[in-house]
Amino acid sequence: MQYSKEFLRKLYKDLLDARLFEQKMVDIYALGKIPGHIHSGVGDEACFVGTLATRKEGDYIKPTHRLTGAARLAGMEWNDILAELLGKVGGNALGMGGVLHIVDLDKGLLGFSGTLACDAGIANGAALKIQNTEPPVDNIVYLFFGDGTSSRGPIHEAMNMAAVWKLPVLFICDNNQFAISTPASYGVSVPNVSVRAAAYGMPGVTADGSDVLDVYEKARSLVEGIRAGNGPALLECKNYRWRGHFEGDQCKYRDASVTEEWMKKDSVAKLEKILIDNDVMTQDEIDAQRQKVDGELEAAIALAEAMPEPTVEDLYRNLYV
Ligand SMILES: Cc1ncc(C[n+]2csc(CCOP(=O)(O)OP(=O)(O)O)c2C)c(N)n1
């Protein structure tokens, strides 16, 4: 096995954290605890976990609406994430931003704009800051976007500019094959989004988005080049959205049996098998880890529920004229 046990345990912890958080979000949303609506990232975790396993201090992350748990990968605590999610004053935006706006600039988590693809220009801005830092640093920006978003103009402008200026950006397409109800096979001009990298003279690679180690390996080699100053790269993680676009979406536009087939390619189950087969963890340790994370999430939810909601006066905090 080419990986250390320590590395694999950490990778599993991150993957399990992401999975259990996304599932918990679905559960508490159904109980009416989260205002607004959520986009569950169950099934998309390996794309975020595998790429961010290459991350180091000083890097920036621009996530999407799909994996709220990415905030945890950036180093945020469950308490802070859940307070914002539940609309409570302990959240980073006093509970007024909610699920789409979990931000922690100190940890490099730049947040999500809500206007798809426009995050790409902001990612380039962060990369420009890195490029102009003295003494030089080898940090990078991880920019995530979906397959639907991959066809929007700002993504292409940003890829071109990043390539011209050799900006340290890893463009990551979380290709879960749907943009709301539009299949990628209908709305995206190419079977693999990664081939679009050629138009900008940057490397482009497709990874198996249901295999966290494949994503990690492909990200690692691209990230090495970016940190070495070679400019941006595009990584596509090919996967399938397990749930609806939002909770409540009945997915009448697709065949449930196809979804079930993809769900058998479960990234968490795959990694658990590797851990057990290579004597990295036992089934008992895996079960204990699951229980531990579940307990942490329940405690953070209880803490957030006990917090007050923002007041009318709070509306005027952080407001500039
Ligand atoms: C510019 C813009 N157009 C439309 C929307 C509405 N919208 C929100 S999510 C979404 C689908 C995005 O699909 P994709 O990029 O594949 O990401 P996924 O939801 O599959 O993760 C759309 C159209 C938006 N937020 N911004």
Explain how this protein is built.
The chain has 321 residues and is an alpha/beta fold. It has one domain (5-308): Rossmann fold (3-Layer(aba) Sandwich). Helix content is 42%, strand content 10%. It contains eleven helices and seven strands. It has helices at residues 5-30, 45-52, 70-73, 78-85, 119-131, 153-164, 184-187, 212-227, 256-263, 267-277, 283-306; strands spanning 60-62, 141-146, 169-175, 178-179, 182-183, 204-208, 233-238. The strands form two sheets. The protein has a five-stranded parallel sheet with strand order 1-2-3-7-6, sandwiched between helices. The chain has a two-stranded antiparallel ribbon with strand order 4-5. Strand 6 (204-208), helix 8 (212-227) and strand 7 (233-238) form a beta-alpha-beta unit. Helix 1 (5-30) crosses helix 11 (283-306) and helix 5 (119-131) packs parallel to helix 6. The N and C termini lie far apart (58 Å). The relative contact order is 0.16. The structure holds thiamine diphosphate (TPP). The site of thiamine diphosphate (TPP) has 18 residues, from strand 4.
